[in-house]
Amino acid sequence: DLRRxxxxxxxxxxxxxxxxxxPVTFDIPNLPPQVRANLPLVIESGQRYATGNLWVAHxxxxxxxxxxxxVVAWADVAGRKVERKVGTVGALTLADPxxxxxxIQPMDRETAVDEDWTLQVRRGETxxxxxxxxxxxxxxxxxxxxxxxxxxxxSAGVYIDNIGLNGLIVLKNSNERVFYLTADISAEPxxxxxxxxxxxxxxxxxxxxxxxxxx
Length: 215
Fold this sequence. Notes:
The chain has strands at residues 2-3, 7-13, 24-27, 35-37, 41-43, 49-56, 70-77, 80-88, 94-95, 100-105, 118-122, 126-135, 143-144, 158-161, 169-170, 176-183, 190-194, 197-198, 204-205, 209-214. It is mainly beta and 215 residues long. The protein has two domains: 2-95, Immunoglobulin-like; 100-214, Immunoglobulin-like (Sandwich), CATH 2.60.40. Strand 18 (197-198) and strand 19 form a beta hairpin.
C-alpha cells in the first residue's frame, strides 16, 4: 500500500546476456495521476539494478478499483530499440499516513516535502543535506534509514558517508539530522533521482530529490 504523504520503493533488475552492457530504461505508463514516480528509471551501463519510488501526497484521493500497473523496459541493442513488458509493480492501494513522513531538505532553507530540488556534489568531494521527519502524535521512537546502502538509487560511486556503525538514524524525540553524500572520483557526472527510506510502517520513503554529480 501507498501511505499518504510518503512513498514506497521498488527495484528493477537485469540479467545481462550475450555481452550486452548498455543502459536499460524502465517506465510505468499507466500510473494513476495521484501517484508520482522517479520515472523513467535507468539501469546504467555495467550496472544490474536501479531503485524506483512511487509517492503520493498527503491529500491524495483514492482511485477506483484494483490497480496493478505494468512495467515496460527498453534498450538499444545493436542499433535497434528492443522493448519488453516485464511484469507489474503489484497492486496499488492508498492508506492513511504513516508514523513518520520523511523529507530531504537543503542546509540553508525549507522546501515543500514534494519539491524535487537539486543537491550538487563534485567528484572527490562531499555535500550535506538535512533529513527531516514529521512524527505522528505519540510516536517518539528512533527511526533508522539504513546503513551503508542508506542512499537509495544512487549512481555508482555515490554514497552516504560518515554515519558510523549504527547507520543513518533520527534519534528518539528528535526530528532532524544532517547527513553527508560523497561522490568518489570515479563517479560519473550526471543527474539521478535520490531518496531515503525509513524503517517504519513497512518502509516508507521521502519524495525524491535530484543529485547532480559535477566533474
